[in-house]
Amino acid sequence: MDIPILKIEDFLVVTIQSELSDDEIYELQEDILSRIKDVGATGLIIDITALDIVDSFMGRTLSNIAATAELLGAKSVVVGIRPAVAVTLVELGIRVKWNVNTALNLERGIRLLKRLIEAERRGGAS
Amino acid sequence: MRESGLLAKMSDAETEKRYTALYNAVVSTFSTGKFDDVERYAKEITEGVVLRDTSVERIIGGILKLRDIYERFIFSEYRDDEEMLYQLLASYEPVANNILTIVTMAFVEAREQVIREQQKAMMSLSTPVLQIRDEILVLPLIGTIDSERAEQILEELLKRIVELTASVVIIDLTGVPVIDSLVANHMIKTVQAAKMLGADTIITGISPVNAQTLAGLGVDLSMLITKNNLRAGLWHAEKMLGFKVIRERETE
Question: How many domains does chain B have?
C-alpha cells in the first residue's frame, strides 16, 4: 500500500487512511524519513483521524518517527487522535515515554508547528 | 364467592379492579399451568404502581390472601378425600409460590430500573463542561469522585474538546472534598488524554488539606499545571492563548 506524503511549503503531511499492518508501518516510517531528508522539511504532520484503533506498536512507531524526524531537523505533530484512541493510548501507559506533540486537527497542527519552529528559532538566536 | 367478600374490604375501586385482574391471572395459571398471564399482570401492575407509589405491601398482601383463600377452599372441598387433597396441595403450593415470586421480582426489577435511571440523570448533571472563551473550557467538579464518575468525566470532556475545538481546559476541584491517589491518577489520565487531543489542562482549587495529602502520597503531579483558584487558572489560560482582558471603565 502506498501512502501519499504531501508537501505544503516546508511541511510534510501524511494522512493515514486505514489500519496498517506492522510491515506497512515500517515502510511508511522509512518513506517519511527519507522524504524529510530529500526535501529538507522543517515540519511533519501525521494525520490519524481515520484510525479507530491505535495499538502499542503503532503508538511506539509514531513516537520513533517523531524522535528521528527531530534528529533530521523537522518538528512533528500527530493530529486527529480520536477520544477513544486517546483513552486507549493513556490506558496503555504509552504517554510515559511518548513525547509526541499532538493537536486536535490539521489546522491546529500547522499552527502548533509554526509556533514550535518559531520558538526554536528565537531560542537559538539568543 | 368468599373471595369477593374479603376483597370487598378494599374500598378503593381501582384496587378492586386490580384484584380482579390478579384473580383472573391466577385462575388462568391454575387452569393452563403456564405463567404467561401472571407475568403480564406483574408487569402491568409494577409499571403503574411503582411510579404512583401505591403500596407494594397491598399487592403482595392481596396475593398472599388469595393464596390462603384458595388453600382453605381446597381443604373444605376435599376434606373427605385425603389422597386427592394431598395431590392437589402438592401441585397447588409450588404454583402459588411461583406466582408470588414472579410478582415480587417484577417489583424489584421496576424499582431497580428507576434507580438506574436516576443515577444516569445524576451523572450527566454532575459533569458540566462549559465554554467560557474561544478555545477555553471550564469543568467545575463538585462532590466525591469514584472510578465510574471519573471515566464519565473523561469521556464527556474529550467529547466536548472535539466538539468545541478547545485548546485549554480548566478543571476546578474546589467542590471536591477528598482527593486521594485514585482521583489524582484519574486527573493525570484525563490530562494526558486531553493533551493527545491538543488541549492543555490547568487544575485549580486544590484545598490545602488535599494538597498535603497529595504531597504525602507521593503521586507525581509535576506534569500538571496547577493554580490556586479558578481566577488564576483562567488568567493563565488566557495568557497561554494570547488573550488580554482589560477593564474598559470604572463602574459608578
Answer: 2
Phi, psi angles (nearest 5°) of residue B172: -100, 120
Contact A25, A36 (CB under 8 A): no
What is the ipTM score, two decimals?
A: 0.80
Nearest to A86 among B165, B167, B196 (CB): B196
CA A91 to chain B, closest CA, distance in angstroms equals 8
Burial track B98-112 (b if 16+ CB lie within 10 A, e otherwise): ebbebbbebbeebee
CATH number of A5-125: 3.30.750.24
| Per-domain boundaries in chain A | 5-125
CA B158 to chain A, closest CA, distance in angstroms equals 6
In 3-state terms, what secondary structure has residue A44? strand
CB-based contact (8 Å) between B158 and chain A? yes
CB pairs under 8 A between A and B: 51
pLDDT in tens, B61-103: 877 887 888 788 888 888 888 888 888 788 778 877 887 888 7
The CATH number for B199's domain is 3.30.750.24
B192 reaches A (C-beta below 8 A)? yes
Closest by Cα among B8, B21, B31, B30 to B99: B30
Across the interface, which of A85, A90, A102 has its CB nearest the CB of B198? A102
Question: Grid coordinates standing for A75?
Answer: 518538528
pLDDT digits 0-9 by tens, B127-156: 788 999 989 999 998 888 888 888 888 988
B60 falls within a domain? yes
Residues spanned by the domain of B55 = 2-120
pTM above 0.90, yes or no: no
Of A95, A104, A112, the CB nearest to B197: A104
User: Does residue B63 sit within a domain?
Assistant: yes
The nearest CA of chain A is from the CA of B242 a distance in Å of 13
Beta bridge partners of A5: A14
* Same domain (yes/no): B50, B144: no
